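Worked example (supplementary).
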Amino acid sequence: MRFVGKVAIILVVVLVAAVAHSMQWPITRDIADALQRSQARRGAEGGAVTPPTPLGADSQTNPSATSPIEGSGEPQGQGDPPDVAPPPIVDEPDSDLPDYYISVARAYELWEEGMPFVDARTDVEREVGTIEGALHLETLHFVNRMEGPILAQLEPAFPVIVFCAGGECDASENVAQRLIGRGYTEVYIMHEGFGAWEAAGHPTEPVGGG
Amino acid sequence: MTTGQRIDLIITLFVRLFIAGVFGFAAFMKLKSNDATQAFAESIRSFKILSPIDHEHLVVVSSFAVPWAEAICAALILIGLWTRAAAFVMLGAVGVFIAAIASVIARDMNVSCGCFGEFNFPCDNPIGTCHLWRNGVLAAGCLFLLIRGGGRLSFDRLLAPSKGDPDLDPEPASTLRAKPAPTARPASVDPDRPIALSSPPTGEMSADQPPKPRWD
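After joint prediction of all chains, the assembly is encoded as:
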């Protein structure tokens, strides 16, 4: 058999194995669904101020869904009747960003209400400090199957705010997608990151200090 | 076996084991769990070469195709079967890796490689010139195997039907002797018959013209 034929056979076998394996990969479908929802939201015309849709929520099946976050701090389930639904999270709309992105100002309000924060940065990045009370949950925890004890501290029905360093970092997005894959339906991302939080003078703490 | 052949055997075997070990380990670290594959997909996205909206399908296929290519080619190189073809595929993959890493460095991005999962030795994250050197070494190893083949201790040599097959013979292609051009006249040509300087008008084939190929 000639050289080109062998190369072609190897490539075909690789492609068949990759496609067969990818069809058994549920996380991929979660990400694809989330990205499609994000794209659909970004493509929608948004004239009026609209509440951000949490990452993982299905706006088509629950178009009147609002965030369970309220001043009392008591979360509301998605099955609550609309007439008693709490006020939605209202943030500055930005057509260039997904709706589940929230600003540092809004994130600070949620922090004051006691909502859980998740730090998706690596240990090296966290050396500069973290948001006070934030849990450390990065991609590596999921890869090494060490996420269990951390997820045990997060109630799936409660909203979760994920952040990373900000700017070009994708860590918060990656962790948020994984949280969705594990049943968390109210996931927000503080896209400006820890740097903006620290610059705004909001409470921080050294890593390991609590 | 001469001393040179022994050295050649040892070097080729060492390169095969090194390349197969590195790519086999890389494949295992990416395929050991769904989360490991997911982390590799996130690394591909973080390069920001493929759009997560428009090219997500390419990201997903690449997330599986790259580790499976590494696994299959590592197995072939390890046993020395189709060594040149497997080395060629890996050389192409490493070339793509080098281009992607160079792109990240040129854009001054702070991203993780994900090449060996959470294992970063010998290059720490984020991506830098160390990753270029590492892939350069792998490319050199693949190029060596592409030229030299699997060596004497390989299935390629075991299954070689005849010495001189450029795909199966482990000898380097450059050392294969070119067949000498035939100088003798065809047996059907009368040696006493004068050679025509041009084609005869009757259409008869002259002795210095090659026979026309038959397409039927």
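Two points are worth noting when inspecting this output. Confidence is low (pLDDT under 50) at residues 167-178 of chain B. The CA atoms of residues 11 and 151 of chain B lie 9 Å apart.
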